Automatic annotation (TrEMBL):
Residues 5-173 form the Flavoprotein domain. Residues 189-407 are annotated as: Phosphopantothenate--cysteine ligase. GO terms for molecular function: ligase activity. Catalyzes two steps in the biosynthesis of coenzyme A. In the first step cysteine is conjugated to 4'-phosphopantothenate to form 4-phosphopantothenoylcysteine, in the latter compound is decarboxylated to form 4'-phosphopantotheine. Catalyzes two sequential steps in the biosynthesis of coenzyme A. In the first step cysteine is conjugated to 4'-phosphopantothenate to form 4-phosphopantothenoylcysteine. In the second step the latter compound is decarboxylated to form 4'-phosphopantotheine. Its EC number is 4.1.1.36, 6.3.2.5. This is Coenzyme A biosynthesis bifunctional protein CoaBC. The keyword Metal-binding applies. Its cofactor is FMN; Mg(2+). The gene is coaBC. It comes from the Bacteria.
Length: 407
């Protein structure tokens, strides 16, 4: 990657000490890094540390450097802005577009991609005000990295811990690469994500452990690469990405209706959702009660349609179909055989084989997949769900129809 001009905004949270690692990695990767700390950040890390590590002068005061119009110059020159840690206060200010300090001015004056790594106590992260501000930023295309779940400053733990510096740096650089790579511009992409739920009665359902993280990452990655994305979201446990047309569904039949409609004329359909193969034969109108003296309950299930196979076996000229295979098979060779069988049985063009288990695959931030085509193994990807998303698109993009030039 060529040398980038990167602004690292550091705000006033204890994780500010870890931001030094973010600055250092970016400098060692050859980038020109300009640190813009808030006053609060300087209570946690000293300016000399930031100047030494970034190898550039560090400015804080809005009223210094007025002759060179510094309050807008830093943002205008940036190729990327990373804010780590981003406190709840800074996130609120960014959402509102406030510019009462140098960092606020820098962000408003910039057209560069913005990547933020929130860090705060769990209660603050879960507070509806913070959640609404984060959703606003996501909607505007800001990339949110983390927060991770783990030990916080005190004895408490939960979501709110700043992601590790190497994860933030990788996500930030991937974001710039993705924005530079507009290979899906003009393409229409449909992604299914999450897991379907099949109701038994008004209070219960049969579901699965898919969180939707991998599908959401694919939707975000495709959008960053210029596609117009429809995300068919089945009971997501993660926030849906900004800038996509979101269609919420719950059951397999609802997902089928939504994807069949959206897939018509699409260039790429990625079926990342975990779809229930069976649904209760009937849905009880009232809560199913225990019967006195019974020692079990037998449910009658009926087959759901195989949605991917339905699309794969219908004429779909010009639409590249990517399926997923979730397998618990431990043996690698056997796993690939199962994948190859599914690719053929479903009439998909590509199949992303993903091992799942009690601790693998579901709800995690990282993933390990093999991408199969009719020719065999095309790629193996391991890493964050976002980097795996880009690798899947790297394989898919050159295979899209050539009937129209991407605009
Ligand atoms: N899929 C689908 N409709 C279904 C079941 C699965 O469209 N009723 C899609 C999934 O979205 C995924 C692919 O098919 O892209 C494979 O899903 P998976 O659960 O691995 O396979 P199944 O077909 O359910 O096969 P099995 O459960 O027998 O392994």
């Amino acid at each position: 990657m060529s040398r980038l001009n990167i602004v690292v905004g550091i705000t006033g949270g204890i994780a500010a000490y870890k931001a030094v690692g973010v600055v250092r990695s970016l400098v060692l990767a050859g980038h020109d890094v300009h640190v813009v700390p808030t006053d609060g950040a300087l209570r946690f890390v000293g300016r000399p540390t930031l100047e030494a590590i970034s190898r550039n002068p560090v400015h804080v005061d809005l009223y210094e450097g007025v002759a060179e119009v510094r309050h807008v110059a830093i943002g205008q020159a940036a190729d990327l802005i990373v804010i780590a840690p981003a406190t709840a206060n800074t996130i609120a200010k960014l959402a509102a577009g406030l510019a009462d300090d140098l960092l606020g001015n820098t962000v408003l004056a910039s057209e560069a991609p913005i990547v933020i790594a929130p860090a705060m106590h769990t209660e603050m992260w879960l507070n509806p005000a913070t959640a609404a501000n984060v959703a606003t930023l996501r909607e505007r295309g800001v990339t949110i990295v983390g927060p991770a779940v783990g030990q916080l400053t005190g004895t408490d733990s939960g979501p709110g811990r700043m992601e590790e510096p190497d994860v933030i740096v990788a996500a930030a650089l991937a974001r710039v690469e993705a924005s530079a790579r507009r290979d899906l511009a003009g393409r229409r992409v449909v992604v299914t994500a999450g897991g379907t739920r099949e109701p038994l009665d008004p209070v219960r359902f049969l579901g699965n452990r898919s969180s939707g993280k991998q599908g959401v990452a694919i939707a975000e990655a495709a959008r960053a690469r210029g596609a117009q994305v429809t995300l068919i979201a089945a009971n997501l446990e993660v926030a849906s990405p900004g800038g996509c047309d979101i269609r919420e569904v719950s059951t397999a039949l609802e997902l089928q209706a939504a994807v069949t409609e959206a897939a018509s004329g699409a260039d790429l359909v990625v079926m990342a959702a975990a779809v229930a193969d069976y649904r209760p034969a009937s849905i009880s109108e009232s809560k199913i009660k225990k019967q006195p003296g019974d020692d079990g309950l037998t449910l009658e299930l009926v087959r759901n349609p195989d949605i991917l196979a339905g699309l794969g076996h219908a004429p779909h000229d010009g639409t590249l179909l990517v399926g997923f295979a979730a397998e618990t098979e431990a043996d690698d060779e056997r796993l690939l055989e199962l994948g190859a069988g599914k690719l053929e049985a479903k009439g998909a063009d590509l199949l992303v084989v993903n091992r799942v288990g009690w601790t693998e695959g579901f709800a995690r931030d990282d993933n390990r997949v093999v991408i199969l085509g009719n020719e065999g193994v095309l790629a193996r990807a391991i890493g964050s769900k976002m980097s795996v998303a880009h690798e899947i698109l790297d394989v898919a993009a050159p295979r899209l129809r050539e009937t129209h030039e991407p605009g």
